């Protein structure tokens, strides 16, 4: 007898893949919910989505999916979770409490399928209150990602002649039930409004920075959930407008990673 692992929550074909995360103390900071906690929750949702992929495709054991482009933005509604504005006391689970602790987040993910072997993804985090069955939906963060599927044995992106069939078989249900043609892009800038002018840095400064033990999981591979803290450390040393920007909230509100500037 075999037992198949399924998703944490019932999924509806034609709608985004849904996942719920309860906010606890490690997810918070003095001013509310941490950006890295949002990225970590998205990682949980992404991992859960693999349960509906075809696990019989044994060749995918040797495939990884590193991100080549990452963009995350926090919505203004995130400010509602400032503990200074909440009057929870120890009533973390009270339905009328507005603090972040024990608040449920609903993550909704959809995918696009640009040129092989790339995969694009869009996730939106909604705050739903203290009851996960609530119909409340307040968007607090949106993340967009481009990932490349890599053959661990060759350390190169999947070759379509060898991998296309297994790729299609593995992701068949995800493609059929939770895809959006709008996301069939291999460049994140195409998913955003254009400013019609190139981004120009306003501050150039050479700094020295030592990676502490808290960034140990970044030493060998880019771990996107920890990157906001690293960038914050470096930018604080640079000073200038960024230092003023995070004077009251030491956490970035928008994050962009990759070879392209958005």
What characteristics describe this protein?
262 residues; alpha+beta; Thiol Ester Dehydrase, Chain A; six-stranded antiparallel β-sheet; three-stranded antiparallel β-sheet; 5 helices; 11 strands
Could you walk me through the main structural features you see in this protein, from its secondary elements to its overall organization?
- By secondary structure, the chain is α+β, with helices and mostly antiparallel strands.
- Helix content is 19%, strand content 23%.
- The chain has a single domain, classed as Thiol Ester Dehydrase, Chain A.
- It has five helices and eleven strands, in the order E-E-E-H-E-E-E-E-E-E-E-H-H-H-H-E.
- The strands form three sheets. It has a six-stranded antiparallel beta sheet.
- Strand 9 (150-151) and strand 10 form a beta hairpin.
- The longest helix has 15 residues, at 35-49.
- It is globular.
- The mean pLDDT is 88.
List the helices and strands and how they pair.
Elements: E1 17-22, E2 28-29, E3 32-33, H1 35-49, E4 63-64, E5 67-74, E6 104-112, E7 118-129, E8 138-148, E9 150-151, E10 156-157, H2 160-170, H3 172-177, H4 227-238, H5 241-245, E11 254-257
Antiparallel strand pairs: 1-6, 2-3, 4-9, 5-8, 5-11, 6-7, 7-8, 9-10
């Amino acid at each position: 007898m075999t037992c198949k692992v399924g998703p944490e929550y019932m999924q509806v074909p034609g709608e985004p893949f849904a996942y719920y995360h309860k906010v606890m103390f490690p997810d918070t900071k003095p001013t509310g919910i941490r950006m890295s906690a949002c990225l970590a929750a998205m990682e949980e949702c992404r991992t859960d989505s693999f349960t509906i992929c075809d696990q019989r495709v044994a060749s995918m054991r040797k495939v990884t999916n590193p991100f080549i482009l990452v963009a995350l933005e926090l919505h203004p509604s995130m400010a509602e979770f400032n503990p200074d504005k909440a009057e929870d006391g120890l009533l973390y689970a009270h339905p009328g409490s507005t603090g972040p602790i024990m608040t449920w987040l609903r993550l909704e993910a959809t995918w696009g399928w640009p040129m092989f072997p790339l995969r694009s993804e869009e996730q939106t985090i909604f705050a739903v209150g203290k009851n996960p069955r609530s119909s409340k939906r307040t968007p607090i963060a949106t993340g967009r990602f481009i990932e490349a599927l890599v053959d661990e044995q060759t350390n190169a992106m999947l070759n379509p002649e060898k991998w296309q069939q297994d790729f299609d078989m593995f992701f068949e249900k995800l493609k059929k039930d939770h895809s959006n043609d709008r996301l069939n892009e291999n460049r994140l800038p195409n998913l955003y409004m254009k400013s019609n002018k190139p981004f120009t840095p306003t501050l150039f400064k050479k700094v020295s920075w030592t990676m502490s033990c808290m960034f140990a999981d970044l030493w060998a591979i880019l771990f996107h959930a920890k990157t906001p803290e690293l960038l914050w450390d470096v930018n604080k040393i640079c000073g200038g407008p960024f230092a003023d920007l995070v004077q009251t909230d030491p956490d970035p509100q928008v994050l962009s990673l990759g070879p392209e500037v958005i």
